[in-house]
Amino acid sequence: MSIEVTEEMIAGLSPEAQVIVRALLARIEELETQLNKTSKNSSKPPSASHPHAKPEPPPKPKSDRKRGGQPGHDRFQRELVSASECDEVIPCKPTACRGCGTRLKGSDKNPLRKQVHDIVIQPIITEYQQHRLVCRCGVSTCGQLPEDVVGETGPVLSTVLVLLTSWLRASRRKAALFSSDICNVPCSAGHVSALEARATAALKDNYDELATALAGQSNLAIDETPFKCGPAKTWLWTFVAASFTVFVLRPTRKAIVLCETIGSEFAGSINCDRAKMYFRFAKLQWCWAHLKRDFQAMIDSKDNQVRRLGQDLMRETKKLFAEYARCRDGTISHATLKRNLRPVRKKVEALLLRGFGTGAHGTCKQLYDHKDHLWTFLKDPDVEPTNNGAERSLRHGVIWRKLSHGTQSERGNRFVETMLTIIETCRQQKRPVAEFVKHAIQNQKRTGFVSLLNNP
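-> structure tokens emitted (456 positions)
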């Protein structure tokens, strides 16, 4: 049951009671605002919602299309390999006519071909016998293992187990069960952890190369999300460049992480949200997807002035996204985009000025005072108006955190940031992740370093 408190009712109270009632009403409004925050009208991530929470009503009518692939989409199918490449070819010939029963002989020159793919999981055990021979001088010498022999698990199985716990987000215990029950290779959770440390060491040169290259990039998308290391709270940062991505785990989300990672004099542009740690850098592009949520929060306000302001700003934001989509798909040039958005920019800045006299004064003043950060993408064609690239790259890390509840040591931190960096960079460059990790583990003691800075 809701009770509306009017000014007439408050006026009939004593001065002390009026102060108390107004304070309580303000507190109720503040709590209701916090309660109504969603990923649509605030910076609250979608993952923060309860997994069984009732979904928000769809913004548009449900489509009549059926689930699954739509008519005209590219069909996925395996290409047939030549018969000579098959391990076995089994001819299936009819013995009798299906009409009259007459016995049939011969062969079809163009039979229907169906190929069935399967795998055989069988451990390959290699024993190395190190002979110790004694010289006539009395000194014994032992034979040396080959350089690529490290530990008791080979590079292929090591790669599979490491990718199970990182790329596929399985627990170490489940990875050990996969090795024992499916691959018939005895394994423990502790051994899987040792393999993770081995992979981290094998990929260290790749990680260091990419981390060093961040400072020289012309444009970076940066974001961060909470993580955990034991009982302590940490932060997972992502730095997305044009052809690679670097993750770092640090105990803080302050600007010191940015200075350590990209340098305090970073000259490129940064796609980011409006967090204060980015303010020390001159060339920023504030994310319009975040701004859209702020404008939606204004629309959800009970204040009529703020609601109308939010609707007007949202209208211009939709125009901006529509024009940028045309530029991104090649329909219009960047010069045309810049020209088409001139009236949008003028209108947005005028609306922000109008917001100075409303309940959205703080947001509007910050945006207007730093309005250049809203339009960096119009000056540089390589800059996007949103920070969606960084948010997409963080998604894997967020799911990993929710499933594993974080790490327990600095060694675990290095594994997380290294594997996330390699997996996301290989995805950007369309490299096979498993092949790259296997090569690194296999050549850990050799000079088999493969650079990730240049897209193959």
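The CA atoms of residues 130 and 143 lie 5 Å apart.
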